[in-house]
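re: ur question from the group chat, yeah i did fold both. here u go
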Amino acid sequence: MQFFLLNLLSGFIFASVFLSILSVAWVILELVAQWMVFVKAGEAGWKSLIPFYNDFVFYRICWDTNFFWVSLVLSLIRQFLDRDDAGFFLSIVVLLLGLVIAVIDFLFCCQLARAFGKGMGFTFGLFFLRPIFMMILGFGSARYVGNNSYLP
């Protein structure tokens, strides 16, 4: 019994170390892909490494920075209002704020896809599988065609 538990524990340790290494490699791959997208858009790659600022630059690359500020403020308000003891009305407000943020995020994905000459299918890919489609933008043959600041 003790031998079984020791093998089980060593298996868990191996799996957790393997998954940790895999997770770190995935994050590094995502950061490199974002760096490449920034470089393709004519921005310095290091800007992709700074939290919040990288989102601001992404909005500047493909859309309008005012939508970044709207999204940020709505996210902060939503986080402030989202509590366990919230009543029904407050829960509805939090839900509606989440929907508005999701719509802004979808429109951002649409503008990002257009900025690299991609279509609506790529927009859905960016919205639902952003890390994978960001790698396609960064490492693939997509070229930056410019900021199309109009809505779809």
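okk and heres the other one u asked abt
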Amino acid sequence: MVVTPQSGCQAQPVAITLRNQEMKRITVTINGKPFEVEVNDLHSSPLQVRVNGREYEVTVSPTGAVSTSVAVPPSPVAPPEQASSPKPVPASSMLSGNVLTAPMPGVILNIAVKAGDRVVYGQQLCALEAMKMKNAIRSPREGTLASVEVQEGQRVNYGDVLFRFAD
């Protein structure tokens, strides 16, 4: 049986084991710690239970999961790992020297930069529609754009020049 907190409660679900279910007094084990629990009727819904003199209402779902108003303190959660370097940007374009070319044939939907703009690694330069899918063309490096070789609405083929870098 699993005890899950009610909505709005910041508790985590806890697995419990019931013993001596025929009796009105049962032992419930939560995270390895046994509790003596008094139950009015194990077959009623919701269950009326008393733990250490405090009454709770417990609802048992058909799958065996249980929800209750018991607030179980959440387990400590490790903080997310901080990346020491930027995550690689998926290869969405091809860079050859200072020229960025189209990775696939399609239509230029929009252009987010202009000649002279300073761009950073991973920055979206334009969007290319190919096979009804919008593909972001991102900068494979930092630098200044010398020129934008395409226009919105233009059809491009694989390998066509999209942008030129100045540096």
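fwiw on the second one: The chain is about 0% helix and 45% strand. Residues 17-23, 63-75 have pLDDT under 50 and may be disordered. idk if thats what u expected
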